[in-house]
Structure formats: structure tokens, C-alpha cells
Amino acid sequence: MGDPMKLKKLSALAELVSAIAIVVTLAYLAIQTQQNTAAVQASVRQAMVADDVELIRQLLDYPILYSARSGDTNLSDENLIRINAYALGFIRSRENQWLQYQNGVIDERSWRTYQAAIPSMLNSELMRSWWRSRSTKGEFDEGFVTDVNKLLDANPVRAALPIRESLGFGQD
User: Fold this and answer.
1) Are 157 and 124 in contact (CB under 8 A)?
2) What are phi and psi for residue 138, nearest 5 degrees?
């Protein structure tokens, strides 16, 4: 048989090698997790931008969508249907971003920049009425509705501004 002292040394060496292998494996997994998290976050941010670009394209195709945000109430049924679809797409997009924020996929700073557009979208009495009607029917996540309502309470409806000024081309 072998020398018991040699066996103890070999056993201790095997335990050391095993411990080092575990530490190296854990470090590798931590790096992989960080890289995967970064890739997921980048993918989500890209999707957020793509959603907004599509919403902007709709505004270009149908400027009436912007008019509803500024308080125009003289709208045809066709335009009300367009506005409803646009508003639903906008709010669904923000709800999805809110859910991603709640799940830790996007950071607070990113969420806050996207959240800032909600009061502008729901700035007119027409759009607030739309929001009240849709949000009380259970169409959106309850937590999202609560957060949007708090945001709207802090940002009351403002008088409609001329288009030039509301788009940021006002007189400074």
C-alpha cells in the first residue's frame, strides 16, 4: 500500500485543485452572466428605440395624431380611430418599458427618459379622457396605471400651445 502521508498530501492537493477549479468556474460564470445581461439590456434598448421610431413615423404620416395631443376636439371618426390606435400603441410601448424597468432589465435613468413623454401624450382633456376610459377597464397593468396616474396628477393638463412652440421651436 501507499504511504499514508503521501495519500494525505495527494488528497489535500486534490482538494486545493478542486477548490481552484470551482473558483475559476464561478468567475467564468459571473463574467458570462454580466455579458449576457449587457446583451439583453442592449437588445431591450434597441427595441425601445425602434418602437419610438415607429411612433414618430406615424406622426409624420398622420399629423392629426399630434393635434389630439394639443387639444383639437374637432375630429372625424376616422381620425379618432387613428388617434385611438396611436395612443394605444404609445401607451402599450410605455407599459412594456415600465415592465422591463420593474424586472430590472432597464435602468431607472432610461425608464425616466421614456416616462417623461407620457404627460405630453396625455396632455389634452381629450387624451386624459381616453386614458381614464381605457385604464379603468383593466387593459393595462395595475401598477403601471397607478404610476401613470401619479405622473398625470403631477402634470395637469396645460393650455394648448401653438404647434411651433409645443414642438420646441418656440421663441427663446
Assistant:
1) yes
2) 80, 20
Q: Which pTM value belongs to this model? A: 0.73
Q: Hunting for cell 437588445 — which residue is that?
A: 43
Cα–Cα distance for residue pair 103/28, rounded to 1 Å: 24
Beta-strand runs (E) in the chain: none
The stretches of 62-107 forming alpha helices (DSSP H) are 64-69, 77-102
Q: Alpha-carbon torsion 30, 31, 32, 38, what sign? A: positive
The helix/strand count (H/E) of the chain reads as 8, 0
Which residue ranges make up each domain of the chain? Answer: 46-158
Q: Does the structure show a pLDDT above 90 at 149?
A: yes
The one-character DSSP state at 124 is S
C-alpha closest to that of 59 among 163, 135, 149: 163
**Sequence-separated (6 or more) residues with CB below 8 Å from residue 108:** 101
Determine phi and psi for 116, rounding to 5 degrees: -60, -25
Q: State the pLDDT at residue 2.
A: 64
Find, among 117, 137, 129, the residue nearest to 59 by Cα.
117
As given in the structure block, the three cell numbers for residue 133 are: 376610459
